[in-house]
Amino acid sequence: MTHPLHLFRFCPRCGSARFAPADARAKRCADCGFTYYHNASAATVAVILSPRGELLVARRALDPARGTLDLPGGFVDPGESLEEGCRREVLEETGAQVTVERYLFSLPNTYRYSGFDVHTTDSFFRCRLMPGARTCAADDAAALAWTRPADLRPADFGLTSVRRGVELLLARPELLAAD
């Protein structure tokens, strides 16, 4: 198996080429002692429900998985909570503000970006649009649509964690029900 940091050839602290695997997920510099761990990045997925129980689905505008279905969400920025990251990503992709109502579950994912596998832990949140909010595809969403859960086909979702999340939502409809 290839080390997850195989593309990182030099120590980011001192520039030494003696930056070698320390274990299955870390590299250590033999010159300055710096150790870098390959940890999962935090990401969010918004399960946005309409008053009629429809789910807001996006079509991906960019790779990875360009053209496939997705749910709004993305990486959490440094200094943000998961909920803040979820609200910001939804605003960027839909132009709408949401209320994050409830944490649902999390799933691991591998997101290939710039030739590098970014391991993520994707936290799924049930959300509702703020009163009067309207949606418009933006950022990395090419289109948005409201879809009945019964009409969802998990195979249409391009990102592994989102596909698995949709499967879980369909298998456990209580996750979509209002508290």
Task: Give a verbal description of the structure.
The protein is mainly β and 179 residues long. It has 2 domains: 1-39, no CATH class; 41-174, Nucleoside Triphosphate Pyrophosphohydrolase (Alpha-Beta Complex). Helices cover 14% and strands 39% of the residues. It is built from 2 helices and 10 strands. The chain has helices spanning 82-94, 160-171, and strands at 19-23, 26-29, 35-37, 41-49, 55-60, 69-70, 73-75, 98-113, 116-129, 141-147. The strands form 3 sheets. A 4-stranded mixed β-sheet has the order 7-4-9-8, with helices on both faces. A 3-stranded antiparallel β-sheet has the order 1-2-3, with no helix packed on it. A hairpin with an 8-residue loop joins strand 5 and strand 6. It is elongated. The N and C termini lie far apart (45 Å).
Please render the helix and strand layout as text:
Blueprint: E1 19-23, E2 26-29, E3 35-37, E4 41-49, E5 55-60, E6 69-70, E7 73-75, H1 82-94, E8 98-113, E9 116-129, E10 141-147, H2 160-171
The secondary-structure element order is EEEEEEEHEEEH
Multimerization state:
single chain
Number of helix segments? 2
Number of β-strand runs: 10
| Mass-distribution shape | elongated
Major sheet, described briefly? 4 strands, mixed
Q: What name goes with the CATH superfamily of the largest domain?
A: Nucleoside Triphosphate Pyrophosphohydrolase
Low-confidence stretches: none
Judged by helices, strands and strand pairing, the structural class is: mainly beta
Q: Overall mean pLDDT score?
A: 95
Q: What is the CATH topology descriptor of the largest domain?
A: Nucleoside Triphosphate Pyrophosphohydrolase
Number of domains: 2
N-to-C CA distance: 45 Å
Helical residue percent band: 10-25%
- Which strand order spans the largest sheet, edge to edge or round the barrel? 7-4-9-8
Strand fraction: 35-45%
Q: How much is the radius of gyration in Å? A: 19 Å
> Could you say what the CATH architecture of the largest domain is?
Alpha-Beta Complex
Name of the CATH class of the largest domain:
Alpha Beta
